[in-house]
Design goal:
The structure holds 2 protein chains of 2 kinds. Chain A has 9 helices and 10 strands. By secondary structure, chain A is α/β, with parallel strands linked by helices. In chain A, the strands form 2 sheets. Chain A has a 6-stranded mixed sheet with strand order 6-7-8-3-9-10, sandwiched between helices. Chain A has a 4-stranded antiparallel sheet with strand order 2-1-4-5. Chain B starts with 8 loop residues before the first helix and ends in a 6-residue tail after the last helix. The chains are: A alpha/beta, B mainly alpha.
Chain lengths: 258, 694
């Protein structure tokens, strides 16, 4: 399980003439994703999804609020290093070390995750099996196709058997076959009782994949619930329309405030 | 999932280190810089210099020079001029000089024309004995200084004539009945006997060259590795991957730092080895050619080289940490190149310290980075082992490296640095098409431009000044204004804004003159006080001045020494540099730094303070009025007074006796300081009048 309480992130920029401008990218968000669940994080560009997920993955420090995760044994973890140890994080920006082969990279990461050599080797053998990497596991990553690279990326997230997965637009720009491998993987891990946090722009994907959805706009949560609940609330027939309706309503409210 | 307790800091650092090393070694650029360059560079340098040397030697030997002797009008005179003996001497190729001079038979009237047509390179005219010259023969060598062959021929003739002079004196003395003419010719014989061992001489030479080469090669090795480990991660998009890993910034940086240092040390060791192999080979070649010329006991160098190696490691740690700090700011390899260029210039420039003659390696210098390692290597190679200095150098390098690493850890903490957009600040390295232009230069551009101008001043300026004297000074000034003008053109800056081209209000002119007068008094006191403390410094400055003036008139001197700097130096320092600094730093900091840079530019310890004070005032005036014309006027007045004092000492002494005093009493100093302050304050008040700048 992963839980965020009152997460806030403020960025300050120094603009011309030394004017300091602050901007709340994430504004008091509390969410929770349970074991055996896929939680979708949806929102338009610039809504604060990436910042939120980066804080959850401890890549960024929040300005306020806390992140807690529970590992498979049910222990609550709050330390940065412990949390990272139990998270598999994948985004469009988490590229691989191209000069290594998949096997070399994975064994090196195993060492950093504190696994013994034997543990790492066994785990890699298992992952090669699950993700069918056998044909190219010893080729340098720079020579792999996009789909193969994507499977190695998943292997990277899987290596240390994390309890929580955070996927930030993992299928962006991928063809159907490559995104299929990721989607299948998420479903599989959900079955295995893992927690999956998933942000995307593809509403169809989100609609059939997510158990629950959090809708974010301008750094705030504007709606949460299962896809069906959200559709019912807004009286729409598919998630795409739900999304547009929610955003328009919210823009009206915020516009009225101004 | 895994428990952390089993994973200690060391294992993580080790894992990061292994990852970085493998990553670096798989990169062609790093490998080339680390291995291929050192292995090829030194053989190439050696071969090049050998080829060059032998080419020069062979051209010297093979070249023949054609000359003529005109002595129709000469008679033997009281000193017995002997035309036949002179000709024989000139044509002799077997004597100690071994010159190839060929005497052409050209009628006396034709010689001048033949020289002009280059059928001969030079000729001697022997005039008839003249009472004005005590009845001696005057031998004039006619040549063309504009032709290098002619100049060489003239030098050769002069050498030959020296022998002829002695020969003639000897004959005369013998004819007069002197028994041992040599005693009269040279009552005392002077001989040199170099007591330093061959090893020391070789060491001295190595000591000059080696530090610069070592520093540069370590820097290059460290640079590529540092870029790859910092900006490279951003460029390849693996930084975010790295941040998902359960490692702290300290472990991450430490691992990366040791990997970069390893590459830097490896490249330094390879450089050293390659250079040694080449030197040994070179030495062997010399040995076989000429057995007694040089005998060196190579084993003498072993302890020295071991200490050099130790210093190299310490320096590699330092330079790796500093380079990583700089390259972390960049997002790509190209950008890192831009950021690191000023650093490289500074480091390489500092390593030139070993070429400065008679520099004393004291405790203070031992703490200055780069300079300390260069001087240490240089002193070790002449077998001066001062272990306290060695310890200081090693310790300071390690301490500086540690400070840089702590800074680096803080940088990795900064999310702006990790996820931010950043901007390219050195425009000069961006293609001109991509530059939008406008506004004033960036700070990095300004530093680079001043550094370039300073390098030109040092390497080109000193040469042209020595050769062309006053003209050389003028050329130097053109170079100094040329660099910022070129930079402004290339980066498409706003010329008016960059150079603060704005007409001053009339009342400001009065204010500037007053402020300058006041400042002159203050500077006078400062220079007299410092001059009494460091008399040598002042003496060198004065001698250089006398040499450069070399008999020029007042007006040219005024133009070159007062007017040219008022335009050129102002354009560089108060224009290009200060407009950039004033925009990006707080006013007080910009003014102080502007003054300090102007002081450094004068390359003298005492002048650093005196011109530094002037620089601060000038910067303030430009800051206040945005008009460089005012500081140009002030600069001109300041220099013009000095020029006038040199050319019209009597009149100036009557007018301003204080200028010529060697020292000042406390009372006089106080009066001058107070008067100067009052004058300056009045001037600055006038500058405030008529409204503030926009």
């Amino acid at each position: 399980m992963i839980q965020a309480k009152n997460l806030t992130k403020t960025f300050t920029r120094t603009e011309k003439k030394k004017k300091r401008v602050s901007f709340r990218a994430v504004d008091d968000i509390s969410i929770e994703a349970r074991d055996g669940e896929i939680l979708g994080v949806l929102g338009p560009n610039g809504a604060g999804k990436t910042t939120l997920l980066r804080m959850l993955g401890k890549l960024m420090r929040p300005t306020g609020g806390t992140v807690t995760i529970t590992d498979a044994a049910g222990r609550e973890l709050t330390q940065e290093v412990e949390i990272k140890q139990n998270i598999g994080y994948l985004s469009g920006n988490t590229k691989l070390y191209k000069r290594f082969s998949a096997r070399e990279m994975l064994s090196m990461l195993g060492e950093i995750y504190g696994m013994t050599r034997q543990e790492t080797e066994e785990r890699i053998a298992r992952i090669i099996d699950i993700l069918d990497l056998g044909a190219f596991v010893d080729n340098r990553i720079e020579r792999l196709s996009t789909g193969q690279t994507q499977r190695v990326s998943i292997a990277r997230c899987l290596l240390h058997s994390p309890q929580v997965y955070i996927f930030d637009e993992p299928t962006l720009g991928l063809d159907i076959i490559s995104s299929r491998s990721i989607i299948d993987f998420m479903k599989q891990e959900k079955e295995n009782g893992k927690t999956v946090l998933y942000s995307t722009h593809y509403m169809e994907e989100a609609e059939f994949l997510c158990d629950r959805i959090v809708m974010i706009y301008r750094g705030r949560v504007v709606a949460k619930g299962s896809p069906d609940e959200l559709k019912e609330q807004t009286r729409t027939t598919n998630l795409r329309e739900t999304f547009l309706k929610l955003i328009e309503d919210e823009a009206d409210i915020q516009g009225g405030k101004l | 999932m895994r428990n952390l307790a089993g994973t200690t800091k060391m294992t993580k650092i080790k894992a990061i280190y292994k990852k970085e090393m493998l990553d670096l070694l798989r990169d062609k650029k790093t490998l080339i810089m680390m291995v291929v360059v050192p292995l090829l560079l030194y053989p190439l340098i050696m071969m090049g210099s050998m080829l060059f040397g032998s080419a020069i030697a062979s051209s010297m030997q093979s070249d023949e020079y054609h000359i003529a002797v005109v002595d129709d009008a000469a008679d033997s005179g009281i000193n017995g001029y002997d035309g036949a003996a002179l000709r024989k001497l000139l044509a002799d190729t077997e004597d100690e000089l071994e010159y190839h001079l060929i005497i052409e038979d050209i009628p006396s009237g034709e010689c001048a024309r033949a020289l002009g047509a280059e059928t001969i390179d030079a000729y001697i005219e022997v005039a008839a004995p003249d009472a004005a010259d005590d009845g001696r023969n005057v031998l004039t060598i006619y040549y063309l200084s504009s032709k290098s062959a002619s100049e060489t021929a003239a030098d050769m003739i002069a050498d030959k004539l020296e022998i002829y002079k002695k020969q003639t004196s000897r004959q005369i003395l013998t004819a007069l009945g002197v028994e041992n003419p040599e005693v009269l010719l040279e009552p005392v014989a002077v001989a040199f006997d170099d007591q330093s061992a061959n090893e020391e001489r070789v060491g001295r030479l190595l000591g000059m060259m080696l530090p610069m080469l070592m520093v540069t090669s370590i820097l290059m090795g460290a640079f590529y590795a540092a870029v790859d480990a910092t900006a490279g991660e951003k460029e390849r998009g693996t930084l975010e991957t790295l941040l998902t890993l359960p490692v702290g910034n300290d472990e991450l940086i430490t691992g990366k730092f040791f990997a970069v240092s390893t590459v830097a040390v490896a490249s330094a060791v390879l450089n050293l080895v390659s250079m040694l192999l080449m030197s040994i080979y070179f030495y062997a070649v010399i040995q076989t050619e000429d057995a007694q010329k040089l005998h060196i006991n190579l084993t003498d160098f072993i302890p020295a080289l071991l200490i050099v190696l130790l210093c190299t490691v310490a320096f590699a740690l330092f330079i790796s940490a500093v380079t990583m700090c700089v390259t972390t700011f960049a997002r790509s390899f190209k950008e890192a190149n831009n950021y690191a260029t000023p650093l490289m210039l500074v480091v390489m420039f500092a390593s030139f310290v070993t070429f400065v003659p008679n520099i004393e390696f004291t405790g203070l210098l031992a703490a200055v980075p780069v300079v300390n390692i260069s001087l240490l290597i240089s002193s070790i190679l002449v077998f001066e082992y001062d272990f306290s200095v060695i310890m200081i150098v090693l310790a300071t390098n390690i301490v500086y490296a540690a400070i840089a690493i702590l800074l680096l850890i803080r940088l990795y903490d900064s999310e702006e640095m990790m996820f931010g957009e950043g901007d390219t600040s050195i425009q000069i390295f961006t293609s001109r098409k991509e530059i939008k232009g406008g506004g004033v230069p960036t700070m990095s551009d300004a530093v680079l431009v001043v550094a370039t101008a300073l390098l030109l001043l040092l390497y080109v300026g000193s040469v042209v000044q020595a050769k062309f004297m006053l003209w050389g000074l003028f050329i130097t000034q053109l170079l100094i204004i040329g660099v910022p003008l070129l930079a402004v053109w290339y980066t498409k800056r706003d010329v008016r804004e960059t150079f603060s081209l704005r007409l001053p209000k009339p009342v400001w002119v009065l204010g500037a003159v007053l402020a300058e007068t006041g400042c002159y008094m203050l500077v006078l006191v400062v220079s007299l006080v410092l001059g009494s403390l460091f008399p040598q410094d002042i003496q060198t400055v004065n001698e250089t001045m006398d040499h450069i003036l070399g008999g020029a008139g007042f007006v040219p001197a005024l133009l070159v020494i007062a007017l040219a700097p008022a335009v050129c130096e102002e354009a560089l320092f108060r224009g290009y540099f200060f407009s950039a600094a004033g925009k990006r730093l707080r006013p007080a900091a910009a003014i102080l730094i502007g003054g300090a840079v102007f002081g450094i530019y004068h390359l003298s310890f005492v002048k650093f303070f005196t011109t530094g004070i002037l620089g601060i005032l000038f910067c303030y005036v430009v800051y206040r009025t945005k008009s460089i014309l005012l500081t140009s006027l002030m600069h001109f007045l300041n220099n013009a007074v000095s020029v006038a004092a040199i050319f019209y000492p009597e009149r100036m002494q009557r007018l301003l006796p204080v200028l010529f005093q060697e020292s000042l009493g406390a009372g006089e100093s106080l009066v001058l300081v107070i008067a100067g302050m009052v004058c300056m304050a009045a001037g600055l008040l006038l500058l405030q009048a008529g409204g503030r700048r926009q």
